[in-house]
Each structure stands twice: as C-alpha cells, then as structure tokens.
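Running this now, will post back.
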Amino acid sequence: MSWPSGRLLPSDAELYHEGGWLNDVCILYYFDVLLYDEYSRHKNWEHLLLVDPSTAFAIRFEDDEEDLALLIDGLRVQDRRCLIVPLNDNSDPALPCGGAHWSLLVLSRTALSRPWSGVYYDSAAGRKMPSWVSGVGKKLTNSDVRIAVGECSKQSNCSDCGVYVLEFAKRILQASLLGDGTPANLLGVLPRDVSILRETILESIHKNGGRASR
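Update: finished.
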C-alpha cells in the first residue's frame, strides 16, 4: 500500500499485530495518519513536526556540515515550536533497518524567539538516556539543548516500544493542539491503550486498501 510519504509492504503491516516490533516504515505510516487524517487542518499544525524516523537516524550519524544542512533544511525547524523525534538504538549507520528499541525525544519552545528545551521518554524500565540523544537535539536545533528525562508508562514486554512511541506522540499532539496547556499524561498509558492503537492502525490500513488482516 502506498501513501504520501512511502510504501507499506504486507510484511510491514503484519508488524502491527500483537507481538510485532515496529520498524521505521510502521512509525512513519502512523505519523502520516495523524497528519493527514486528524490534524492537517488545525491552524497550529505547522508549528509542530513529526520527524521521519529514517531522517532522525541519518541526522544522528551525519557529521558533514553540508550534508547535515541538506537533511535539516527541509524540516523548516526555524518555523517550528515542537519537534517529535522517534529514536532507534541502532549503533550501525550502515544498517538503517537495525536496532532493537524505540524511544522518543520531544524538543519544544514557547515561541519562535525562545530557546529550545527537550524531554526524553523511554517506555523500557531501567534504561538510561543514551549520551548521543543530546547530540541529535543539538543538530536539529543548532543549539545546546538541555534534555530532561520525562516520566512515562513502561512496557511489559520486548515488542511494544514502537507502539508506546506512537501513543506518546499522539498524546503530545493532542495536548499541544487541542489542550488547555496541561502537559500530556504519558504515565496514563495502559497496555490496553497500546493494543487498541495497534487495532486502530490495522483498521486504517484496511480502510486505505492495504492488506493487514489475518
């Protein structure tokens, strides 16, 4: 199934079923669902950006200034007040589909003229924030960003990290665009919320003509 930002293969769609570990295409597909199906007409949507996970991965490892500028220029960071960045723990830049865990970096500022701050969310209990996360924040914002570790719900298995990232991103968007200024409640994400999100995405694929049912 093709959509504006890519192509979802049947093998990708299968990963949304219980027990599936989401890859970068799975993350990107739901980000586009949020954009095109839910929030694209919101007046403040342009202030936020859901970063393509493959772009975030490339930025992490890109050290050439010109190539880094090419990656970042298209994101229009100068026009954004919130960047939602999915992070993969893959340590091999030659293996873009590797890694075993997803986490989330949220960079925000109260106004375009204000400095950036960051919060890092990880649904795996006991994991520390990797040292390279601050480097991603610095490259994206061209500034030294102070990044705090945010409180969030924890997964109970080894396969749901990507779905937690999507649920966190969804709640952050809802709070930013539709809320009253109260921060998103990421401690309230329950296992059933994760299961429901998997089902919701599968329904979206079926609605859009993809093959993801069993």
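DSSP finds seven helices and seven strands in the chain. More later if anyone needs it.
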